[in-house]
Amino acid sequence: IHHITVQASMSEDEFEYAYDSDASEDDQQMQEEDDQKGGGSDNDSEGSFEYTDPDEPEIDDIDIKLENEYYNAKGLRDTDNKEAKETFENVIRMEKEALNDGNDDSDGTGDKVGQWTFKALKQLLKLKMRYGEYEDAKEGYRKLLQCISNPNIDGVSPNDVEKSINGMLDRVTAMFQEVISASEPGQGSSMKYDVYDSTISLFHPSHGARPNERLWFKTNLKYGQLLYESKETAKLQTVIQDLLNNSNDSNLMEIYALQIQLYSRLKDNKKLREISSKAMKVQSGVPHPRTIALIQELGGKMHMASREFEAANHAFFQAFKSYDEAGDDARLRCLKYLVLASMLHASSINPFDSQEVRPFKKDPEIVAMTNLVDAFHNNEITTFEKIVNESGIMDDEFIREYLADLLRTIRMQVLENVIRPYTRISLDALSRELNGIPRKDVESLLVAAILSGKLDGRIDQVNGILLKNTDVHRGSNTHTSSMETDTNIGRGISSGTKGEKDDMIPWGGNSISVSSCSAMEKLMEELESLTMAVTAANSKVVNHHLSTRMRVS
Question: What are the backbone angles phi and psi of residue 380, rounded to the nearest 5°?
Fold first, then answer.
């Protein structure tokens, strides 16, 4: 058996073959023994080739040992936590000894660290966080940051650092949220502060040990969002101020989005309008569609709080499109708010008729809102209230906040349609038409309609009847009949009034205030005429007495 050494030449797919004729007798003997045992000659002949590449550096034994030890430790994570940690610690110790052999660290720059130390520290930190060892995890994260900040770190790219830090911060955030849900906030809060504060300090663009504006900015945004979710307003305001003082203009939109969330929770509409206006004027940078969508959604909520339902409807529609562009599931939530604003605006346009919204009409999460808006436009108040009570729409806190306004809007809409053909109708009949709401609620709706000018009429509370002012203008006979008990009043309709639409003032005709002013003017004129008549009569009496006295004298 002869050894052939294959050497790669400079050109592609060309090799130099060196024929070795000095094969040892031992090799020949081993081959003969294999042949006698039935070993295939093909496999043995392949094994007799040694492939070498002159450009490939020789692999150091220590690198192989470190890699093997590292992956052995990873294999123990799910079976033996203690042994896995000890093996990772051994990886760190082995690489430190290998890299710093003979180095006395006299220049004070610190020991050299390599990629296996970096990886082992990450795995140790994950293990400690998995098993709830919070204090040890804090110490482990401090060591990881110390490794990253070491000027002698080797084999770890900035991209590796950023990816690892972001991953660790996501784990800390998830762990903190789990702790909060388990009603044990004290255990996770301390680590949350330490991890984020130490990371922000290390990468701070102005005074950090390892300045990295991109990573610092992302970490601050994550921290701000976590503080917002945990309702820590004071600390959140500090984070926002730090961002405003040390960030460039291209990041303003993300900062404004965080500010808008803060002021939305505080219900500070003045500040909310101010920041929203600034955000809409930002020209620098290309913000993520999700950031734009968040600003537009919160702007819609701001308009809702100010009862500006038309503006809210527009804002929610724009937010829905931005979420859809980003592929964010929040688009469904925003679509619900769009439908809500559309109904409160009493718009005759169905939002599901738009090209952007139509594809979501049959989505399981949206079907209830689709049926709700259909019932709203068809004035089917019974179906409307059934959907509200049974579909789970009210599980959303924001929608639940406007339930009373929503019910009042559809009731007013139904009331308008019921009253239109009649000049007189009982409050009990209106109550039945409005799905059996109390009579006092019917009176409240009618009063609101009269005061807003939508209805020209008056309420006879004694007999429980709504009288349109057309009854008064028809003369005394109609007025007298309105005071009588009519057999049809129980059904809610006065006899002979339906169908007399030519003489009827339509919904929204004259307001009660105008009618009252006209009656007052007429009364003043009559009083003035009466005063003049009395004065004239007194003058006649005085003249009569004077003439009588003169005749007597």
Answer: -90, 85
Contact (Cβ atoms closer than 8 angstroms) between residue 371 and residue 336? no
Query: What is the per-residue pLDDT across 155-214, written as a single tens digit (0 to 9) for each?
Result: 888 899 999 999 988 888 887 776 655 545 555 567 788 889 999 999 998 888 889 999
Contact (CB, 8 A) for 202 and 222: no
DSSP string, 24-61: -HHHHHHHHHHHHTT--HHHHHHHTEEEE-TTSPPPPH
Q: Check: pTM over 0.70? Answer yes or no.
A: no
Contacts of 10 (CB under 8 A, 6+ apart): none
407 in Cβ contact with 385 (< 8 Å): yes
Element (H, E) at 4: strand 3-8
Residue 207 sits at the vertex; the CA angle it makes with 203 and 208, to the nearest 5 degrees, is 25
Residue type, 179: V
49-52 vs 424-426, strand pairing mode: unpaired
Q: How far apart are CA 480 and CA 493, in angstroms?
A: 16
Q: What are the phi and psi torsion angles at 458 (to 5°)?
A: -145, 160
The amino acid that residue 161 corresponds to is V
Rounded Cα–Cα distance for residues 136 and 113 (Å): 21
In terms of residues, how long is the chain?
553
